Amino acid sequence: MPLYEHVYLARQDVSAQQVEDLTKAFTAIIEGLGGKVTKNEYWGVKSLNFRINKNRKAHFTLLNLDAPPAAIVEIERQERINEDVLRYLTVRVDELEEGPSAMMRKVDRDRDRDDRGGFGDRGGFGDRGGGGRFGDRGDRPPRRDRDDDRGERRPRDEQAAGE
């Protein structure tokens, strides 16, 4: 049977439990038509690049499928009918990816970065030290007095009369 990766986006205002129920319903359709779901990943609520039906965020779910084309046609028909599903995409692949998907690996990497404390050895945005492109620049020198460069200031009336 052909292999597919199927991702669907559910509305932001449905609960995670409702998304899980949707996934179970789609899995039942696939299995009823002779296919099987080899992997089911819930990616969480993510921001969308543009609004879809007045939604700025959506629940993302990935399903790796080993199913006949008729099962894919039926699951996509059910998703078009369901008001909670904003978008879906099914891609036929030569082989299914083992282990966590790229999105899940990204989440793990972000979690590791948070444990390190932000930006690794650079500190934060306000830190002037550290290994940037120019190395450690040290502290700024003290500010000089503005009157040092310009000389003594005259009142405006004298400036206008002197010209």
- Figure out the total of helices: 5
Shape: elongated
Helix amount, in percent? 25-40%
Using only C-alpha atoms, the radius of gyration works out to 29 Å
User: What is the CA-CA span between the terminal residues?
Assistant: 92 Å
Annotation, overall tally of beta strands: 4
Helix/sheet category? alpha+beta
Largest sheet features: 4 strands, antiparallel
- Mean pLDDT across all amino acids: 82
Order of helices and strands: EHEEHEHHH
Low-confidence parts, pLDDT < 50 over ≥5 residues?
none
User: Beta-strand level of the residues, as a percent range?
Assistant: 25-35%
If strands are numbered along the chain, what order do they take across the biggest sheet? 2-3-1-4
SSE topology sketch:
Elements: E1 3-11, H1 16-32, E2 36-52, E3 55-66, H2 69-81, E4 85-93, H3 102-116, H4 147-150, H5 156-162
Antiparallel strand pairs: 1-3, 1-4, 2-3
Helix pairs in contact: 1-2
